[in-house]
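G., the chain you wanted modeled:
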Amino acid sequence: MIVTAPAKINLFLFITGRRDDGYHNICTLFQKISLFDRLHIHRTANSGISLRCPDWLPTGRDNLVYRAAEGFFNAAGIKPSVNIVIEKDIPAGGGLGGGSSDASATLAGLNRLYESPLSEQDLYRLACSLGADCPFFLLDAPAAIGTGTGTELSPVDVPERWFVLALPDFGVSTQWAYQNFKLTTRHLDTIFDARAQIDTLLWKNDLEQAVIEKYPEIDRIKGKLFETGAQAALMTGSGSTVFGVFPTEESACKAADCLNGFESVAKTAVVRSLRHGENHYQDGLE
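Predicted structure as tokens:
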């Protein structure tokens, strides 16, 4: 079985408070995009979980995919005997959710492979235990507003858009970004009207300023995206990827050409928002 796992961007990210457990409450708009990892999942005659992936990723419990598989088998009461191979196109440390998407793809793929021993609610609980972004990737929806730690999800309709991703030559630690964010006092109901945010492109990422103070290149990349005609530009998640919004594929491709070789930009990619019907994990036979 081949399972595709999409990347995401955060079209806005507001932090509304710090929780007693050390995490933060947020309000964010998740958007799946046309950048994918691929997972090959097969049952084997050998017992245990065998994981193969690029050399820069761990293959044991330090890998979120391994922990997802382990959690699935424990919850289903099935003896593990599976081989998983990860093909990576989503960069790590860029705020694109690749690890979370791969973990959720593992849960969804294994549940199909073993003829659905777990319910959707079971899978949701497992995803929540793996990471705050994981439940979104289980949703059969291309976009959703996430509240709480990001696990309370409400699907929304978002216009199709083209994006240029500018991936810097450095990553940003999620933990560091949240630790260095300066929390202000405000309440969710006074922040914004979500529909207006979606429609007017008045997007904001509360983590952006803290990251820019350490990595001013982020701000310069945003400026370059605006110079090339972006309707909006923002850092996604905790960074370091910056995206620009464009009305057409042609305008996005022209902008990406201008960004190639720009200060600290290691790679660019032109992607679009996923549509209904193509947004969930796709699997196929090998």
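The chain has two domains: 2-156, 162-272.

Shout if anything looks off.
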